[in-house]
Structure formats: C-alpha cells, structure tokens
Structures
1.
Amino acid sequence: MPEITVDARGMACPGPISALTRAYRNAQNGDLIIVLATDPGFEPDVKAWVERTKNELVELAKVDGNVIKAVIKVTAKK
Amino acid sequence: MERVVIIGGGGGGAILANLLPEEFKVTVVDKSEVHFFQPGNLWIAFKGVRKEKFLRPLRSLLKPRVEFVHDEVVSVDLNERVVKTASGKSLSYDYVVFASGAELDYGSVPGHRELLERFGDFYSTPENAEKLHASLRGLKEGRFVIGIADPVYKCPPGPHKAAFLSWEFFARRGLSDKVKVVLAVPVPHAYPSKTIADIIEPELNSRGIELHTFFTVNEVDVANKRIVSLEGEELSFDVAAVVPPHRGPSYAVNPAEVKDGSGYIKIDKYTSRVEGFDDAYAIGDCTNAPTSKSGVTAHLQAEVVAARLQGIDARYSGRTNCPLITDGKGLFVISDYDHPPIPVRLSKFKRLMEDFFVATYWSAVRSPELWSPIFRAYFEATDEFIRRGEGW
C-alpha cells in the first residue's frame, strides 16, 4: 500500500500535526502516513487527531532516542 | 553601481528598497500601483473603517531614488540574471530579491470562490472586506463562521482577531444573543501555539464564541450553507469567511527547483539567500522560512538583506511579534527560531501598542531608517523575555 512519509523533526507544535493535515489532504483510503516528529506535544496531538478523524493509528513509538514515529492508516476519507 | 531588482512593493519590498543607500540602483516591480496595509482589512470588515485609510500609492512610499516599474513579473531567470515582465521588459540585475508575498488560492476548495463572491472576507482585499462588512450588517440572527482551509497562512492571529472583533460588532448592535460567532481552526487548540491557546480560550469562552478544533475547511456548500472539514465534520452558517490555502509565487522561476512543493522560494532561514545562489534573496510571505507569515518577518528580513547587500553579516533570528487583539485588550505572540512563544499577558497597553503601530505604519515604510532604532530597542528588550522563557 502507498506510503507517505512526513519528516516533521525539529518542528515546534503544531508543526507536525499541521504537516500531517497537509499530507492527509492528498492521501487516499488505504494509504499509510508515517510522521516523524521531535516535539513532545505531537504524541497527544496525534492521538486526538486520530480519534477525531476516525482513521487508524497503526503505530506510535519512540525511535532513535527522542524521535516520535506515528504510522496512520487512512481509512476515513470520504 | 550595483543594480537591485525587488519583485513586490509590499511591506518587505518597500522597506528594503528604502533602506538601500544611493550606491545601489534599486528597481521595485509590482503589478499594483497601490500599497495596502493588509491588517486593515479587519478594521474595514468589522469596524466599517473606510478602505482609503489603508491604501497609499506605492510610488509615494518609495524614496525618490528608487525606480518603480508598474508591471507584472512573468519570469525570473536566476542563471541569466534577468526578470521579465508582462509588457515585455527585461530587467537585468546584479541582485534580485523576491518579495512578492504569498498568493491566495480560492480555487482549490470547492465552493470557496462562490462563498467569497457572496459574502466577501476579511483576508484578501479591501473590497472583499467591505463586502463582508455589508454582509455582517445584514445578519440579524444566525451563525457567522470563520474557517481556515490550510494550516499555513498569513498572520496566524488574523482569524482570532476576526472572531473577537466580529463578536464586538454584534454585541454593540445588541445582537450577541442572536448571532453566534463560530471559529474553526485546523490545529488541536484554539491557537497554533498551546501557550497562546491557553490564554485566549477563556476569552473565547467568556464571550460565547463557539470553537471547533481539528477543523480544516475542505468544501463549502453555499447553496445549503454548510462547511465540511477535511477531518469529517460539518458546520452550518448564515454568513461565513474562510482563509484560503496559500501558495508561493505563480510566475516562473528558473531553475524551478528553487521553489518547494507549495511554490514557496526556498531560502536559508537566517540570511534569506535563495538556495544555490549568492545574488538572489527572498523575504516575507513568498518564502519557505519556518516562521510565521507576517509583516514583522518581512520587515526584519528586509533589514537583514539590506545589511548583507552592504557587506554586513546580518542574520534573522526568526523573531515574530504578531499582535492578537480581543475587543479591548491585546497581546503579542513573540518567539524566534530557537524558542517557542512565551507566556504573555493580555493587556490594554499592548492593545494601545498595536493601535500605535497601525498609526505609524506608513511612516515606518517610507522612512525605515528613522524607525529601525526604535524597533530594534523594542526587539532587544523583549528578546530577553524569549531567552528566559518568561512572559511579559
């Protein structure tokens, strides 16, 4: 399935979630959006975003020390 | 004498042109003969201020030594060092500066252009702000919705100012119980910065302004008066204004790689130098600099470029100073590349500072050399707050 990677490392809040929103606009159901971020606020923000949009959070983990990796499967686009 | 061509005579371009000394032959190219103070749109839309207050002939704002070319740029060739215009002019340069601002895209959200034509907005032009004022005067009950179609837009506090000023507009007419002001934002909180959101959310709540987060406008259905978000929600409206998606300059630039995926000119965020070129700079809203698209950014980048063209190793810190006002008080969102916005306090004094700035705008553009020491003193004093992470 197509993957869209968003490198939002170094961006302050709400940069990562804004970058996710812009990627989501161009995504289709079935796509995977992978977001890499370093802002600690991204973790609660992405959880809230997934809950609101009804998409699927496949993975949310710390990688390489302080990098937060979120993998979202797009399932709710109309 | 070195030739500098500046594309765009908005705040950044005009200030840069006026800062460059007589040793430079400076040309400003703009498709408009009129310079308008963009935040004035809010005053036109919500306070009914005459648009003429915020308009000046661009020629009158430029020093006599600056040449003004009223023409539309169609292409810039960075390898050949030439700017071409719609009327067929070819302007050769030693340095070129992109200062043409961000372009507003009303075509990418279905129904958006129809919404603009129906109600106007507080964002694009003085004429559209006048139209919105008329639309609001005709709204005696119902919902006025303010939305945003993309997280990247000029003047981050603009929609919030619009919410507070429209609330005041209806309250003064005794309509605060009949007209609901609704603010919908694409981010998780009331404002992009959580620090600022924590301050203004209670202000929105106390006025009964309805807030929707994670709401990125994706479609406008004017016939049925509803807005659909990218996140899957809907809002009904009686009058609405939506901040459109933005993009970089639409004129051609060679090599095309200097533009990013949204068309913004890729620059070094500290020096404003266009990636890969020593003789090209970009300032203000047309760049991909990771800071707010705002007048203060354009102004401070203009000062940096003016200094660098004169051989001084100046750098822009990413400093912002965006005023956010309610109906009676104000605050400034201040930050830089290395520090997030600090806690700030709403106060009547800061609202007065905003009003003072509006009053001095034309003078600051026309004679930046007189105002720069005052602004510099202010920035140096408040930089300390940012570095310490303390409010002011």
2.
Amino acid sequence: MKSLVLGGNDAVAYAVKQSYVDVVSAYPITPQTSIVEKIASFIAAGEINTRFIRVESEHSAMAAAMGASAAGSRVFTATSSQGLLLMHEVLHWAAGAGLPIVMANANRAVAPPWSIWAEQTDSLSQRDTGWIQLYASNSQEVYDLVFISFKLAEEVKNPVMICLDSFLLTHTKEPVAVFEGEIDGFIKEKKWKALLDVDNPEAFGALAFPKDYMPIKIQQFERMKKATAVFEKIANEFKNFSNRQHSVIEEYGDENAEVVLITMGSLAETSQLAIDKLKEEGIKAKLVKIKMFRPFPKDELKESLKNAKNVIVFDRNVSMGKGGIVKDELVGALGLSNCIGIVCGLGGYDVDEDDLVKATKDVLSGKIKEDTFLWGEK
Amino acid sequence: MKIPKDEILKPNHLACPGCGAALAMRLALKALGRKTVIVIPACCWTVINGPWGKNYAGVPVFHTAFETTAAVAAGIKASLEMQGKDDITVVGWAGDGGTFDIGLQALSGAAERNDDIIYVCYDNEAYMNTGIQRSSATPIGAETTTTPAPMLKNRPKKDLMELVAAHSVPYIASATVAYPVDLIKKFEKAKSKKGFKLIHILTPCPPGHKFPEDKTIEISKLAVETGIFPLYEIEDGRYKLNKKPKFTGIEEYLKLQGRFRNISEKEMEVIKENIKERWRRLEIKFEYFN
C-alpha cells in the first residue's frame, strides 16, 4: 500500500488498471473524460492488457460492453449525465441479461439548461433499470468500490454502477491509499464464464411469453435483493486487504441522536462537518450515509432510524412534481412520519456545512415543517 | 462448387412459409460453420429463432436491442480475441429496419473502426415483423401500412452498399437466395477476411410483398435479372459485377407482388429511370474501380 494524491476519476482509472479488466468500451463526456483517457494511456504505455473499443456513442458503449461481457470478458465503462440517459435502454438489457459490467458514472445535472456540475438526478433516473447502484463520498471510497464492484457483479451476476459527484469528486484531489501487488489476491480471479459458447449453443434474451417473462423477472428481483448481503460479505473480505470497512449504509456522530441527517455522495462529507458543528451547539445529531442505493437497504435503515425523533434527507437530485428521490424512497420503504426532505445543490450549486446546520435547526425549531428546497438565503 | 451438407439451422424454426430470411440463414450457416456467434436485434429473426428456451439457429445467439447489432457484435469479437478464441466468426444479423434506419449509427461506428465482424442485412424492404411499415429500404412505389395507396413510398431506396463502401472496409457484397452458390461463396470470402464485412441479402417476404409463398426464388431471381437488385462485390475498393442483368421483366417483377398493385404509369417510369440511373453510376465503378 502506498499513498497517492488522486482525484476521483484518477482513482477509478487506477483501480480499473489493477482489476484485470479485459475490455473497456467507452465514449467521452465531461466530466467522466479523464477516466477513459487515463485508461487509454495505461493501455498505450503497455501497463495493462486491456482492449479499448472506441465507440461512436454511449448507447453503443453499453451495447459493446454487453457483447464483451456475454462473451466472457471482465468489462468496464464510464459515463455521465446525458450519456447515461442515452444508455437507458441498454442498461435494462445488460441487467436483464445478468451481465457483470462495472460502470463509473460521474453524477452530473441533466439539461436543459446545460450544466456540467454535480447532481444525482441522472443516475437516480436509472434506479429501475436493474443496476446495483453505489454512491461514493470521497476518492478513497471510489477507489475501493471499483474492486468491490467487480467481485459483487460477478458473484451476483448483475451490473454495478459506481456514482461519484462531478467535479466535487471527479476532479478534486486528495490522498488515496492505493494497493500494490497485495490486491491481486482479492481481484485477480474472475468468477465469470462466457454465456456464448459454440460448443453449447444457446440463445439469450429470446422472446418470452407471459408465463415465462414474469418468473424470469422475479428471479432477477431476487438476484438483486441478494446483493445487499453479498456486498457486506465482499466488503469484509476487502477489509483484510485494506483495513478499510465499507457498508451499505454508514453512520457518523451520536448514536442516540435526536436528529438524523441522511444523504448520499459527496454531501456526506459536508454533513460530517455539520454534525460536528451541531454537536458544538449541544444538538445530538448523526449522519446516515447511503452507500448502496439499489438494492435499497431497507432493513439496515430501519434499524439505524429506530430511535430517531427527526429525520432530514438532503437530496442533491429532484423528481419533478414530487421532490427529493432519496427522501421519497426512504419514506416509501419505512413509512416515516417524522421525515423532512430538503432538495439542495442542484446543478452544482454550493452547499456548505453552515447551510446544513441552519436547515437542521430550522427543522428542529419548526420553521421548516414540510419538504422544501434549500435556496435563496445566502 | 459443392454446397456444404451440414444443416446447422434446425428445420422447426418459426418463419412464415416461403420466407427468404430463413433460407438466407440456412445458406449462410452452411458457409460459416458451427464456430459462429450471431447477434440478432428486433426483427423477424427474433421470432424465427424461437421463443425463450429455443434456439433454432444451432449456433449461439444473443438477442439485443434494435439499434445495437454492430456494437454488440464488436464487443463479442473483442472479448473473444482477448481470450485467444480467434477462430470464432461473429455475425450481426439484422433486418433492413435495424440496418438502414435505427441501427445505422452503430453500423457506421463498427465499419469506421473496421471491427472484425460480418454484418448481414437481410433485407425484406419494410418493417415486416411489426406489420409491414415502410423503412428507408422500401422501394419507390411500394404500398405499406404506413404508405397506404394512394400515398405510396415516394422516395428511392437508400443505397446501403455505397453507404458502407464510403467507410473503406475490406469486403461488401450483395446476394439473394435465388443464387445459393454465389451467396455461400460470398460468406466464405467474408469469413476468410479480417475487418468489417457487409453482406446485403435481398430476402423476399410473401406476406409483406404480397406474393404466393412458392414464388420467393422466382422473385429473387427477377430482382437480379431486371437490374433492380444488382449482384456485386466491393473487395478492397474494387468493384466486381457477379451477374449481368437482362434489364427485362420489370413489369413482371412488379406485377407478381401485391405491394406494387397501385402504381401509376408515371411511377412505373420513375422506377425504370431509377434503375437506369443506378446502373449508370455502378457501371462507371465496375469499369474504373476493378
């Protein structure tokens, strides 16, 4: 293990380099670009034995990734925002076919108006495509999650999307502990065989009549649900190599908190600062960071929130006409009556710890009584 | 030349009687052999190959989204090469809708990269699987459910061969099921070459073109003899004509098919003019680029 100063995109590329990836199929989009550029440079320098298919669109990027995976390769791609939306149809195909593709998505706002800055509406609009979704809060998590994702994808037979907030994570550099040879023991063995086999010719994805379609979809649902437990198991194995623990949800702050803040992605780092400030002011608060959004960690969240008097969800995303998507999911899963959703930071709009502290106090004092946008008071 | 005896395509597939696309696959597989992987997008072959649990093609088949044939095939080939499985032929097998229209971007992408795949367009000149709607491969004067008489298709068919030729790929050929030896030879040639290959096969469709199911071969043959569907190859940029048409029988070709029953004399003249104009351009290529 050594320490390098890496941005989130660098961390992805570095981990892909160490993950024995056979095929990368990708199309550039801001701010994902430097991931695929860096992978290309590793290939050009002869540092990795990986084939790079330079496709003509994100739709084809996912299609080629799907073909490569079906033929038995370990496959990676990366995208962002509009590119992810263009892939939407093929995301369903890849998940339905149970292909262990790993993709990094730089969470970027969706046009119009054009925006290249952080927001999670792009990936959250893909929540029903059947992809496992993980959200990283810093470059170390991004790096670690790549290794865990390949293992998870191959074991569950399902694609995995690793999400990292654009610029806040993709381009902000920080020290990252990176592996040397020791990670081989974790990642080198591939648990994936080709579906397409000329000695055993089968057809995949054929027309299914209603009596077949529904049980196949139930099977897919069960496969996905299993991913929560498999993630925890693989994360424990990963701890042996890194001494770093990852979980589907993670907590920070006071266990007996009267108010719980919930969020995903880089906002969790800001929330930690807010928790510390609230503590200084005598307010017992804790953060629950959702690392795995799909499958939704319902049981873990239920346990974590069982004593909470107040729950506030900070969503850097929005479902038009409804509100924050994570808040909606949480309430849908747990039926909370004490939960306020606050949509903030859309299109990269700055949110700092003081904003979160103020919003939390406004909820506790009753000034904020219902779901709202954090906006206009700076 | 002997036609290979091995019947890879199984006889109980789900094609309509007289289907040109089923016959095309049967002949193509004879040439390609069992070390072949096929990618099929939304098209008649989605149905022909059988429902969930069946695979009448007899080689591995990956069913995929409408517009992704070439990209998926490129991914499969790259993956096989990375595993050292260089003896497997990867074939994208798409209809005219999935090729001329919605799949054109991925096709162009794979052709430009010169991915080592065979892309086959079996062309029945309309969206037959969804009930005979016009595609950009539908010829002028044809009646379809989206161009019902009197508003017949009024634009000429897109020229796929020349479109792909603009990508400077090693091999492009046209074929029809009326000339099985010619078709098999072309698949064998395509299999032997590295890089992107296109084979454009005219596959008449009895319900879509509205002709009796025993006329498939006759119509395929007439398409070539009339000059409506030229049989030629573009090998490393060199043009080669495989069958010289007689340029007769155009009326007979059109009369045999119900889809042309409503064309006027004026449209008939336009069709004849289009054939002449296309051949004027092609002959220059046969002469100067051979």
3.
Amino acid sequence: MANPMKIRAAVQGDVTDVRVLMAHDMETGLRKDSSGSPIPAHFIQLVTVKHNGKDVFSAQWGTAIAKNPFVAFKFKGGKAGDKIQVNWVDNTGDTRTDETTIR
Amino acid sequence: MKTLKALVAMCGLLIAANASAQSAVSEEFQKFRSIMEEDNPAELFEAIGEEYWYTKAGPRNASLEACDLGLGPGVIKGAYAQMPRYFADVDQIMDAETRIVHCMETLQGFSHEEVTKQPFSNDKGTPNHVSVLTYVASQSKGMPIALPQSHPKEREAYAVGKEMFNYRAGPYDFSCATCHGTEGKRIRMQDLPNLTTRDGAAKSVLGWPGYRITGGRMLTLQWRMNDCFRQQRFPQPKYVSEAVSVLLTYMGVTANGTMYTGPGIKR
C-alpha cells in the first residue's frame, strides 16, 4: 500500500504555489539487492494535479526521478479554499490520490 | 634571506587560499542543505509516525497515546528536546528512541526481540519506531534543547558520557574526542564539529533524526552513534544500549540552550 503524500498549496495574488512530496521507491530496475538479484523496476509513470476537478498539471515520469520525489509548480486562477487533488500511477498499476485545500 | 621571506609569504598566501576554498565548499554544502530542507522527505516519515502513534497495534492492541516521554503520558510537544532524561519507572536514563521502543514493549506488548529485530532503516524499509521517533522529534521543532540535570542519575550520565567521549581504545587508539575534541578538523570535505563546545555539540543534536538522501533512508541518533563506534573500530553497542543514551546525555547537555530545528536532511 502506498503511503500518503504531503501537499501544500498557497495562493499569493493570483498565483498558486503547489508543492508535493510523494512517498515512492522509484526503483530503476538496474539495481541489485544484497544477494545479487535485480530489484524490479518500480516507478511513477503519470502524475496529474487537478484544481477543482480541472487538470492544471500533468507529467510523464521515468526512472530518472529520485526516490521520494518532490514536485513544485505554480498556476494562475486558484483561490483560497479551492481543492487541489494530486494523483500518481506507477508502472505496477498502483495508484494514490491525495487532496488538500489552497491556503 | 629575501627569497626565504618571499617563500614564507607565498606559503602563507597558499594556506590562506586553501582555507578560503575550503570554507567556500562548506558554504555550498550549506546552501544545498537549506534548499533541500524546505521540502524534506522526513515529513513523509513524520506522517507515518503520527498515524502509528494513534493506531492500535501489537498483542495488546494498544496505541502509543499513553506513552510517557518524560513530560507526562501522551505529551509529545517539546519532549524530544528534553531527552535523554531519567525515567523513574525503569530507574534509568533513556533517550527518545529507547523510550519509544520501551513504550512499544510495555504498552503494545511487543517483545524486545520483535521491536528490535530491525533496529535501523534499510532496503527493506523503515521500522515503525523510527517513523514514530521522527514524528516525536518534529513536535520539538523550534524549541530550545533543555536536557534536565536535576536527578543524580542524570548528572551521573553526563559524567559517564563525558568519560566515554574521551576514552581512548580500540586498534586505532581512538576516542570520540580524537576527531570531535578540537576546532577546525575535517574528514575529506566534512567539517567536524567540536562537540566539547556548546555550538559544536548543537550540531550533534540538530538535524537528527535525519533523512539521508543517499539511499533515501530515515536515520536516527542511535544509528549515528553506532556508526561512530564502527568508525573507531570499537565493538558496536547493542541497540538501545544505555551506553548510547549516556553518551547522548553528555552531548545533549553540552548543547543545552540552543534551538532544535526538527528532523533534518543529510547528503
């Protein structure tokens, strides 16, 4: 089971600053464990961020993203109290969605 | 004579240049750390630890809510910055990590072997007590380090810890003080704090527990102390040994009065 994300969203003027910290192993598939057998690839492939149900950010990720990834971006049009929903899907089909409101 | 003077002057310049290059590199490391600290993945472990604190688990199906961290059952705020301290119920000095392990045994009914079978974070994951410790530590963010020294056992722990810190032994005839007893020492590019001074000792408390970027692991002071013993080629202490609590008491008391900044990030 995937662990929760930490999401922060704060509005200043008309620009909302979103910061997301995700808990994920992001294994490349190229590493070996202590017994020498390869650790299977396990990484986030798709990240989607919705603002009040409407897409404001999406990204396709690969194995070059570090463990426990951090994403920050800004968008226009958010207001305090609006909902920010972040979703990721990884290569094993595992997914997690977390939500916060804009401060 | 003239050439000798010039040579001496040149040597002086070279040394000065070397020293400023050294501090410039340290500054770059410092900048890197402060950028990373803004979004420290330690927060992910805080969240897991917080959830575990309130979750019923173990043979007794109990949460850790009644755990006494020295300020009364269930009081977390500021507890980490005041540990290690004396606990009357066990009549010994315990650091935060030892106390959390103790609570998991006494409240939740886990056996000592069960809780400590994986003491530190590794490839297999982060043990619950490490996440709980990270949560507890986060609740002392911005508070002054204030280890009590009122109980005789606490004063004894400080004295014994100081002795351990200065005790030279092992194949290299090393003590903690060999590396951490004077100003301006370093290993490769790492500046070594002088742990016998207040500001130096603060560096041994600050940033722990810490998220190490290499490997993406949450590591604790107990782990760090074990690593110190390993580097000195000493036998490593048993997990949550009182010896480690006592050593942490010496360093913590020396750092008293400085600000604890919460879980940190390591390179």
